[in-house]
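Please, structure for the following, as C-alpha cells.
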Amino acid sequence: MMTNPTSQIPSSESQAVAPIFRSRDSRFGIWDLGFGIWDFLVLALVIAGASVSSGCSYNTFVSKEEGIKTQWAQVENQLQRRNDLIPNLVETTKGIAQQEKDVFGQIAESRARMAGARTPEETIQAANQQSAALGRLLVVAENYPQLRSSESFNRLMDELSGTENRIAVERMRYNERVQDYNTTRRQFPSNITASLFGFKEYPLFNAPPAAEQVPKVNFGKGTN
C-alpha cells in the first residue's frame, strides 16, 4: 500500500513545507499590483497613442528632410553658377587693376574653399566668404573708370547680379524649410522621435553682414 510522502513528515515540518507547495500553485498578475481594469485600459491607450504618434512623426521628419535636401540642391546649383562666373570676372578685372592682388587672393581662396566643401555648414561658410570677397571687388571697381566702361566687365556683372538674385531666392526657400523642420524637431512629442531615430538639426543659410551691405555700384557704360 502506497503512502503519501507528506504524511511521514512531522507535523512541525509539514507546516513549514506546506506553504512551499502552495506557493507553486499561486498565480501573480497585474491586478496584484493594485491596478484596476480602467487603469489598464488607460495605460494601453497611452501606449497605443504614443506608438501612432511616433510613426506619424517619423514619416513627417522623412518628408521634411527630403524637402530640405531637394532645396539645398537648388542652392548649390546657383552657388556653382556663381563660382563658374568668377574666373572670367577676375581675369577681366586683372587686365586693368593688376595691383589689387589682395582682393584677387581672397576670391581665389574662397573658390578653393567652395570646391573643398563637403557639408552644408562648410558650403555656407565658403559661400559667405565668397560673397564678402566679391563685395570688396565691387568696391575696387569703383576706382577704375576704364573697368566700369568695359563691355565684357559689364556683361559679367549683369550675369553675376542675376545669379546673386537667384541665390537669394533659393536661400530664402531653403531657410523656410529648415525653420519648419527644426521647429517640428523641438516640439513634443516629435522631439522624442527625433532623438530615437537620429534626426539632426539643419543649419540656416544666413548671409553675412558684409554681403548684405555691398555697395550698389553703377557699371553703366560711359561712366567717369
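The helical segments are 11-25, 37-94, 101-116, 120-141, 145-148, 151-186, 190-197, 209-212. The radius of gyration is 36 Å.
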